[in-house]
Amino acid sequence: MITNDELKKILRSRERKRKKPIPELTVNSFEKGIQIWDHPDVLHFFNERAMTWIPQKRTAVFLPCSAHKPYFYSQSHSKGYLKALLPYFDEIDIQVISEPMGVVPYCYSNTYPVDSYDYNPNDYFIGNLRNPKSIRSRDIFIQRVARWIKKYHNLYERKLLILPAIWHLKIFKKAIQVAKVDKQEYQIVRLRGRAHISVDYMNEQLAEFFKR
Questions:
Q1: 29: Cβ–Cβ under 8 A, 6 or more apart, which residues?
Q2: pTM greater than 0.90 (yes/no)
Q3: Which domains does the chain have, with CATH numbers?
């Protein structure tokens, strides 16, 4: 597990210790895109880590997963999302929306199996949603996230979404509908292009959100 203090040190350094995904958790076909959701280690993580999470703060912030693992060594996180959120680390619980992990409390981002999978939505979701297997995978994704939302919706006073509109935000919005909770309680931070070039834009919105 990684602490906020450790994250702060990593973000201020040039350290990059990326891990390669393991073959068993690498999605390289539409069939494996379905199968991975029921992998024993994936299920164990979701049921025994994500769904037993105890909120530490009043505010939950939701981020997308990244191509490189652990997340905090990816450019989108280290130079984008986390850079913008750094001033608020002591006020927030960061959660990652991930295929196939569902929801990942950020403290687990450097632990197995979270640091060892590769599931590229551009190849097996986005642009391929006419494929029945992609549709099935998407539905499982939505149901997993919805299950988490239903349990934790009332345990956080404030919820903030910093998710790319093209994919993870769509999944989260559908999961909110399935969970049947008030969508108005989820505030959205918009991006202008990739996360690492949207830091100033995120900063403006975050400053407004946290001064309330």
A1: none
A2: yes
A3: 4-210 (3.40.50.10630)
